[in-house]
Amino acid sequence: MQQLKKYNPAAIARYYSFRPWYVIWRAVTIIWSFGWFLIHLQWHHWFSADKDNKQKCAAELREILTRLGPTFIKVGQALSTRPDLIRPDFLGELIKLQDQLPPFDNDTAFAIIKKSLGTSIDEAYREISPHPVAAASLGQVYRAVLHTGEEVAVKVQRPNLRPTLTRDLFLMRWSACQFGRFLPLNLGHDLTLIIDEFGIKLFEEIDYVNEGKNAEKFAANFRNDKDVKVPKIYWQYSGDRVLTLEWIQGYKLTDTAQIKAAGVDPYEIVKIGVTSGLKQLLEHGFFHADPHPGNLFATLDGRMAYIDFGMMDQLEEDTKETIASSVVQLINQDYDALAQDFVNLGFLTPDTDIKPIIPALEKVLGNAIGQSVGDFNFKTITDDFSALMYEYPFRVPAKFALIIRSLITQEGLALSLDPDFKIVEVAYPYVARRLLTGESPQLRKRLLEVLFKDGKFQWQRLENMIAIARSDQQFDLLPTAQLGLQYILSDEGRYLRHQLLLALTEDDRLHTEEVQRIWALISDDLKPQHLFDAAINALRELSTVGVAAILPNTTNSH
Description:
The chain has 25 helices and 13 strands. It is α+β, with helices and mostly antiparallel strands.
């Protein structure tokens, strides 16, 4: 199994079919470990439910996950970011799984470095810490200095990792095949597909050359973002099991006290994290699928630093735009359009009759959103939506399992820094701004889908989007208006020109003081003069009646 570079469930199954004693013993170990834990938990609940015993149970769970290895540690890491799901005593222990795991011995680690780099430790580094400064599920990190003076982190992979992962993945897949149909799940497809996706990502995560390339791609995507820091990769001192990267000075996002003491606002750090996460999903399409606190740091100058790029994924352009529009459909409570977005994203099959699903979506998601955007949270959505999946043919596409995990993890992280933080209060202004400033034809098409319903232009939606987008201080309405006007005047915007004119002439709206003021603003500020003239000519082509209604005022403004 050491030679297996990419996840291959068929090859893994063949290997263990001739070595059943390996997996049988592993299965017995897992069942025995959790069986005793559940017995202890119930015993303390019945007879000694005091604080000390609860803490002992929490520590016992952490120790079990640690003993069982990387797969179970990954589960514990995900749970450690959900303070709204996990009791505080258990949460405190699970957080230790992020970077307080037992290290393996230095001699083994240094032997791996020497073999991977093909050189001695002294030749590669001027200094290196005598012991690891952090130990994670898949490796451990040493602090070092290159001979050229740069301070670096040296990441070394744990020994015998592939055999451990393949054995656990084989057991998980076998269990899914044998017992998956009896589980109270409605995934819409075989549970093994989710396990295979998990396996693919785990194998990508233990390929450090792949991780280094991911880091450089991520850095290129955020090269113009002053709020995001990505460490430099030193390829001369890196290999498939060793990665040398720039040392990041900062604090873990769970160290709220230290972040505040350094003069950094935790809310601003969380806001950067949410916005950068949305940029990954909706702009770059290349997103970090494992944003737990051990992988994220607040730098001393108030930036967000990402330090682990093993678990990443890529989204297609159409998927990015559909996600953006579905967020707006949700906030606008347009459940007809939202149901269609679910079909487009693969949560419902194309032949699904969505008519009976629309009222159910309205009931579940309407309650989750509440009276304002600030009442929205993913915890509420996932709880209520899970019930909906039992009644209707929803499924979770394998790729979206990672996206959902990433979003829930980010929300949990935000809640750990600020219990009153509402992720959509940051997310929706960004999505609204992204749709309004759509630089691609696909994104402009999504904006049209949001702003039109039953062939009619939805003025209230446009007003809401502009108002919410302007709540973000980085949003400038004037360039957005200019982009919008340029689009309206293009061949691509012909349909929108017709619809806008119909909307303006409906109910004699052209004679209202509000529209006159809007037109005066556009004609005054969007220079040069030929842009305004082009607007007049375009409207004249559409309707001499409409132009006559507005020409007197627009002419006076010039």
